[in-house]
Design a protein that fits this description.
The chain has about 150 residues and is α+β, with helices and mostly antiparallel strands. The chain is about 55% helix and about 20% strand.
């Protein structure tokens, strides 16, 4: 390879590496901001102590993650929080550990998830009221131990 071509290619590679470095810095800055804001929202939901799991499906525009994915608020282990589930890859991540492209794609679905949490929590509360009433009816029929019917 002639020396002048190598020099031109070296300059191009050097320029590309510098541009990638700048891009990386910007990506990391905004990813940190995204994660911090989602963490604040997650903390607020955890403070409410809702105890209801739900999720909404979304698609990612990235060719690296085709198919349907799910943004959820749920309990994983002992902690409640946002998760990203790649249904096609059959993999579940806590939000901050999910691939960046999936986190970015999922964020616009947070309002939809919050609405679904509200709907699901009201539905669960109504179901719970009915179950408690049912159990009260059963326990009202119980006799005290050792009591004799007259």
């Amino acid at each position: 390879m002639p020396k002048e071509i190598w020099t031109i290619e070296s300059l191009e590679v050097t320029n590309l590496l510098q541009q990638l470095s700048e891009s990386s810095e910007e990506l990391n800055t905004y990813t940190t901001a995204l994660n911090e804001n989602v963490a604040r929202l997650e903390e607020r939901l955890n403070d409410i102590n809702l105890g209801v799991s739900t999720g909404v499906e979304f698609k990612c525009k990235s060719a690296n993650f085709p198919g349907i994915h799910k943004l959820s608020y749920r309990r994983t282990g002992i902690k409640w929080g946002f998760t990203v589930d790649s249904m096609s890859l059959k993999q579940l991540w806590p939000f901050r550990e999910a691939p960046r492209e999936l986190r970015v794609a999922s964020v616009e679905h947070i309002p939809e998830l919050l609405k679904k949490l509200k709907t699901d929590s009201y539905a669960l509360a109504e179901d719970l009221k009915a179950k408690v009433s049912f159990l009260r009816d059963i326990t009202a029929m119980l006799k005290e131990p050792g009591s004799v019917e007259k």
